[in-house]
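Field: COMPLEX_INPUT
Field: COMPONENT_COUNT = two
Field: RESIDUE_TOTAL = 590
Field: MODE = joint
Values follow.
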Amino acid sequence: MYILEVTRGKKMLLTGSILIFGFMALAVFAPFIAPYDPDDVKVEKRLLPPGEHHLMGTDGFGRDIFSRVVFGTRYSLFLALVVVSINLLLGLMVGSIAGYFGGLIDELIMRIVDILLAFPNIILALCIVGVLGPSIQNLILALVALGWVGYTRVSRGLVLSIKEQGFIGAAKALGGSNMYIIMRHIIPNAFPPLLVLATLHVSHTILSIAALSFLGLGVQAPTPEWGAMLSEGKQFIFTHPHVMIFPGVAITLSVLSFNLLGEGLRDVLDPRAREVLNV
Amino acid sequence: MLLKITNLRVYFKSADGFVKAADGVDLELYPGEILGLVGETGSGKTVLGLAITRLLPKTAAVSGEVLYRGQNLLALPEEEMRKVRGRQVSMIFQNPLSSLNPALSIGEQIAEVLREHQGLKRKAAWQRAGELLELTGIPAKWIRSYPHELSGGMRQRAMIAIGLACAPSLLIADEPTRGLDVTIQVQIVELLHAVTKGVSPPRSMLLITHDLGVAAALTDRLAVMYAGKIVEYGRTGEVFRNPRHPYTRALLDSHPSNGLIATKGFSPSLINLPPGCSFHPRCKKARKKCAHEPPLVQRIGMDHGVRCFYA
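Field: COMPLEX_OUTPUT
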């Protein structure tokens, strides 16, 4: 009921949440939803247009595109969530340490962050995957390598303002250790704005994963990943566009839903916006 | 003796010179006693409280001695000092809205302290948190409320409950009644009395306040601070009946019930203190000597001292 209360009158949040719940459901119940085995090659049925038996048609190997899009949700969504969670946690930890302790540690961490921020991230990701070889682990590594620095920078800024507040002094006066103060007092207060950032980053990450897979450096064929499906379909783009359209729509829709959720969350979590709504 | 402060000096470096927030403070606090520290804003009261718990910013230069049960707190390593805070000496801050964490419920905040300090399990800590809230007059069913859901008085009660969580022997309460309605102030004063004098053995408290009414109601002894120095100390009744320092007298006269007589002038800048007695530019009794010779504390009776030549 609380959820309904919060989402009432907030169309972006509601639409984003519903779409994401939909994608989540697709991912979890993929084997029950998909009518065919996504890897089932049937040469005689190749490149069928969307129709009664194949909702989204079939691809160049005669595999059912609808089933592949449904299974693809698992890769895109879960890889993106894993990457963003690692980035968020790593960035929050490092950023809190930098902001809380200040001085030399802060200086050191922030200069490393500055250097990493100067790298063009898709090129570094290409390098990492290129050197280590394409695999799911290396894809995650490539996206984490630079992904955490943004969170570090934002968390540090948040921590700098939070640590000057009265309750941090009060926690110290009660003998709280630095670790305790960071974990129990700073992080819970720094988390809401970071959550908005992370939600908006999920869509960004979905795109990066799709891009790397499209370039053949991410998830490998025949895995039904949306970017990889786009790549496989590009040879048929003029003759059988449905092979590319449906994975493309899936990417667009998932990116859109996370953007809506992020924007919606920002409105809910921003205390100033909230006060305006209550009045 | 529970706490003995000797020659405590706290200086802050500023662009214009040293700010002498505490300039040679001597104080004694006996077990089970409530000592009031009164003075106007900027007299160094809060700095003194923070110096005892060593919570001053790193830019503060602190010297002197703060003996707590014979142990010099100023010389303790930070890790040892951390164990003193909360368990031995606990602080209750003014302005509980900013001193409570807005992201945690009050129950969580008390339970966290208990788990961190006393290693209580989650359930036991919540149980104890509920008891502490009841003790301070907040129904335990409010344990899950957040600071913004509580009234000012309730927040101050919650602050006191957190301060008491680890059963400290010494409470330092910094303006605990500030910003509260008069009726609520009375309740907080009664609560503070109950958690100090009402427990056995009685708990000591250093009450920092500019409210003479609160000081009169709660304290056993009183120390009056002016421009970083203690100018008079003694039993509360004695100081109120027989104020000997001109500043104490001025402070009492300025109370509405005594006619709201304002003292001329302003309290001096802590950077450029007047030579001699810091109070002499505002003092009615000042003579030549006051302008160039700083007075020392004179004992004028059993446990009554005054920093004035002509007391």
